[in-house]
């Protein structure tokens, strides 16, 4: 299905170019609402790019926190090893304020236990206009060169000039050691079934839908309304055992951690003594998602068509204060965001 579509609510449209520009997924409704001025900020949810991607596509600031910094209680799950909520806003300050309101240890979400003593209820002290001075930022050129369009490349080069003017130390041509390997999404299929079944089991007894299999059958019975684009992902997930003890699942999860952390982001950070990595738009969001590491998306200009372009900084676990400093410094030096021109 296209980004921004749901059988319940229909198609979300990007206010910068309704029907023309991608809304991003999955927090596309949050992104479009903020960009259109319906709200100053919103809570997005991400498994792999679903805060960062719609933020970039709507010229917003989005923070995908470290896994466990924000409780997932009440959120319909996709993958427990990657799911997180996070702020989306018009500016870094608003995103920082909302992030502080979201953090905390929750007894119902064991992942939050690791954030004790490593989170803040107020991230605004890290709003530093000189936050880029002396920051070592690795530029992941493989993504920049291979993925960007001709209209996006000059926007990215302009970003690099601003970073240097603000005193950042750019380390060019960074390669993530594992980036040429084959990556897969097997973990998501296994964790989706387990997580959805656990979520549904806690609903009141009056609810007839208790398992992922029940959802699949309900969709089939209401195919005209619910299955415009099918449900192959749900069906594939339901074919797994759902116990999270399967050998394929365990192997896939270990491979994810190796590729994203030890032979991925950690290797790049350590080899070049970096504070963070810079990616164009949201390219590379899946690597940070598998690692459970934080990223911040920022407006970075517009293509000649008016389509928003963004950048993304990714750091180590619990480096949100650093990312906010760097993001705020870039934002204040560039002031690139322009609101969409809405038509009646």
What does this molecule look like?
With about 350 residues, the chain is of the alpha+beta class. The chain has one domain (about 5-335): Amidase signature (AS) enzymes (Alpha-Beta Complex), CATH 3.90.1300. It contains twelve helices and ten strands. The strands form two sheets. It has an eight-stranded mixed beta sheet, sandwiched between helices. A two-stranded antiparallel sheet has the order 1-2. Helix 6 (about 185-200) packs across helix 9 (about 230-240) and helix 10 crosses helix 11 (about 285-290).
Question: Care to give the gist of this entry?
Answer:
The chain is an alpha+beta fold and 344 residues long.
Descriptive keywords:
14% strand, two-stranded antiparallel ribbon, Amidase signature (AS) enzymes, 344 residues
* Element-by-element helix/strand order: EEHEHEEHEHHEHHHHHEHEEH
Distance between the termini: 28 Å
Share in helix: 25-40%
Strand content: 5-15%
Provide the CATH superfamily. Answer: Amidase signature (AS) domain
Structural class: alpha+beta
Morphology call: globular
Instruction: Examine the secondary-structure arrangement and name the CATH architecture.
Output: Alpha-Beta Complex
Biggest pleated-sheet summary? 8 strands, mixed
Count the beta strands.
10
Mean pLDDT reading: 96
